[in-house]
Amino acid sequence: MLNSLDHNMNRILITGGAGFIGSALSRYIIGERKDEILIVDKLTYAGNLESLKSISNDKRYKFEKADICDKKAIEDIFVDYKPNIVMHLAAESHVDRSIDSPSDFINTNIIGTYTLLESFRKLYFNLSEEERATKRHIFHHVSTDEVYGDLDDDISLFTEDTKYSPSSPYSASKASSDHIVRAWNRTFKVPIVVTNCSNNYGPYHFPEKLIPLIILSALNGKDLPIYGAGDQIRDWLYVDDHARALYKVAVDGRVGETYNIGGHNEKKNIDVVHKICEILDEIKKRVDGKSYKEQIIFVKDRPGHDRRYAIDASKIHKELNWLPEETFETGILKTIEWYLANKDSWCKNILDGSYKLERLGI
Ligand SMILES: NC(=O)c1ccc[n+]([C@@H]2O[C@H](COP(=O)([O-])OP(=O)(O)OC[C@H]3O[C@@H](n4cnc5c(N)ncnc54)[C@H](O)[C@@H]3O)[C@@H](O)[C@H]2O)c1
Predict the structure, then answer these.
(1) Is 329 a catalytic residue?
(2) Which among 236, 254, 295, 338 has the fewest CB atoms less than 10 Å away?
(3) 186: CA distance to ligand 1 center in Å?
(4) pLDDT number for residue 304
(5) What is the largest CA-CA distance in the chain?
(6) Closest Cα partner for 170 from 212, 115, 107?
(7) Is this structure's pTM higher than 0.90?
(8) Catalytic-labelled residue, pool 28, 81, 148, 170
């Protein structure tokens, strides 16, 4: 069994810690907090140990390769590590892939969440009353604003009370897991918190998602595909702001509650792409001197594409004093600079795998 370094610090089990948001969260905790972490990750195409290189020699960091659907492996990990906080991020996360092949989404996002919850329930109810009373124990389920579905006007915001109405196999699987987590709290009194967050962007983002896809395709001289007319609106949050929010909720959020997390940065997809082109035109000119906007093409829209998402994040602001630090302008510049600096290292290694910036989910 692993020994805790300090009884006042948390032992945090992070699932999906080799992914985009999980690695940002892990770098934040090791870099700026005192807690120990154990990452549990299956290392699918989306998980990459290179994203954890900067913290991998820290003695508060541990990594275990496992599938969250593997009941025996997960139970053993819980018995060995005895986390007091579980931050559950492991998921199949790409909407286009969920249209091509929903089964991985059903397994990982629903069955995987159930498997983790059951292991946590066992661990929690095997603790003595004193252990439960003297140390915070919590299962933090990390989810998305896509569970709320489409906003059909330009002014409404998703609140924690908005009715669920998921549109894609991805959002339906996340909605399902959110309900399971809340039911385990209501029925079994398992201590949980849920967060529903808007679209993230930033460094180490797998390049099938809009922002890294556009940056890398632009630099590689490829087409910049815009789905439909590009008028879908998303509320963009810089990933390090999300990591800080997640930590606050895990450590201080009220048990049983849900917190919406958003960036106060609503943008149309087409405007995001134009902004990326304009920044690249300034800091990394095309050799022919033309604008990267010349590479934009309009392609058939994604089936079931939601038009607008926007978050009311006032609850987490009021209760936990969280606000995003980055505006879209500062965050997107940092992101582009990171992809330029890591084009021939992290990005090259990622693109040497099976994914080649092609269109999925048609
Ligand atoms: N990216 C966003 O904009 C966004 C916004 C809101 C919420 N979320 C949620 O945040 C979480 C993390 O998202 P992300 O963008 O970092 O995802 P990601 O796809 O980048 O990473 C997912 C990670 O989970 C791991 N994983 C997948 N299946 C697994 C399994 N069966 N067992 C163990 N590990 C497995 C992968 O290897 C990968 O490291 C997800 O739950 C997602 O629904 C994402």
Answers:
(1) no
(2) 254
(3) 26
(4) 86
(5) 70
(6) 107
(7) yes
(8) 170
